[in-house]
Amino acid sequence: xxxxxxxxxxxxxxxxxxxxxxxxxxxxxxxxxxxxxxxxxxxxxxxxxxxxxxxxxxxxxxxxxxxxxxxxxxxxxxxxxxxxxxxxxxxxxxxxxxxxxxxxxxxxxxxxxxxxxxxxxxxxxxxxxxxxxxxxxxxxxxxxxxxxxxxxxxxxxxxxxxxxxxxxxxxxxxxxxxxxxxxxxxxxxxxxxxxxxxxxxxxxxxxxxxxxxxxxxxxxxxxxxxxxxxxxxxxxxxxxxxxxxxxxxxxxxxxxxxxxxxxxxxxxxxxxxxxxxxxxxxxxxxxxxxxxxxxxxxxxxxxxxxxxxxxxxxxxxxxxxxxxxxxxxxxxxxxxxxxxxxxxxxxxxxxxxxxxxxxxxxxxxxxxxxxxxxxxxxxxxxxxxxxxxxxxxxxxxxxxxxxxxxxxxxxxxxxxxxxxxxxxxxxxxxxxxxxx
Length: 436
Description:
Layout: H1 3-12, E1 17-19, H2 28-35, E2 41-43, E3 53-55, H3 61-67, H4 72-84, E4 90-91, E5 100-102, E6 123-124, E7 128-133, E8 137-142, E9 145-149, E10 152-155, H5 162-169, E11 174-180, H6 184-191, H7 200-207, E12 211-214, E13 221-223, E14 228-241, E15 244-245, E16 251-252, E17 255-267, E18 273-274, H8 281-288, H9 292-300, E19 304-310, E20 319-325, H10 331-342, E21 348-353, H11 361-371, H12 374-377, E22 378-385, E23 402-409
Parallel strand pairs: 1-2, 3-18, 4-12, 20-21, 21-23
Antiparallel strand pairs: 2-3, 5-17, 6-9, 7-8, 7-11, 9-10, 10-17, 11-14, 12-13, 14-17, 15-16, 19-20, 22-23
């Protein structure tokens, strides 16, 4: 569903909050969103700016599923299907995102937020960024942007990811367009991280049909329904970026990152700015959930994969749970290796049987307690390529973070009497029968 009809639907269902009182971009909006537990919200009056601010549309799996026209239980397979069968979107001549064109942009006119004290500056966070690589084609991803001047940001480009790889091998400027105010389908697709050469906008179009327009000043295409599009160049100059709170709710340190020079901003006539508070539900869900299809695909090559969950306890990035239907003695161990291939930043993974509720942490812990023996079911991988988001990892400037990884096979041993591993269930009765 496109963004605006979806916001309308949420409001009609009582799932969206409207804040009519004037609010400030200096911590107030972020604190209100946090207090609302990131329920979808629209701030109608923002002090000093003509644009409303909204957020919260990807903070909950049920809301995301609704935005994609499905249910939470069917969400994984919908993402898997779109990842396997992307559809190239149509490019049209005109789109709402270009109703207003500003050739001499001033970032002070955008309601960028101060999220928390001690942040490096005002940040844009709900930032769907697109570039083109000469060899692999279009890439779409998220890059937080810190304001550094009237037309300058610093962009956090993680080494090893496609945008940074393309930037590093480009001799001159690298064109980039940043879309703010997008549908759930675009936001999810931009998070998926498919293999190099697979276009995320085509995945978005497979999730829900969309059209695109060509940028006004760059050789790039963007979703026609976006609220704002920031067109610019990543230049061969670095500047301060950070500190800023990251996925694990710890403060990421200050770095030197590439400068993003803004040449043009286009937007709808009645544009709404999208905010996303760092380190919280929406940030976590967008980071972790889109890794579930890639884990599912890899595990499905070696075992009968039923479900995958990148859970909040691991910052929605470092921990995963994989549910399989065990057919062979070594399915659990194979699933562990495949899961780490499907999400290379994952640190710990637990494999469970299909009779264990993957969404119930107590049930998963019970499976570990009753079906796992460390001497034969534990996989330990030392000094593996990991995530810089893990403060306990070994980190050196300019090098990939290293971490020790653990896989736990908490499935029932093969060729045993399974009845002793199964929960004995009582029968519920109608209490009214005993109250007469």
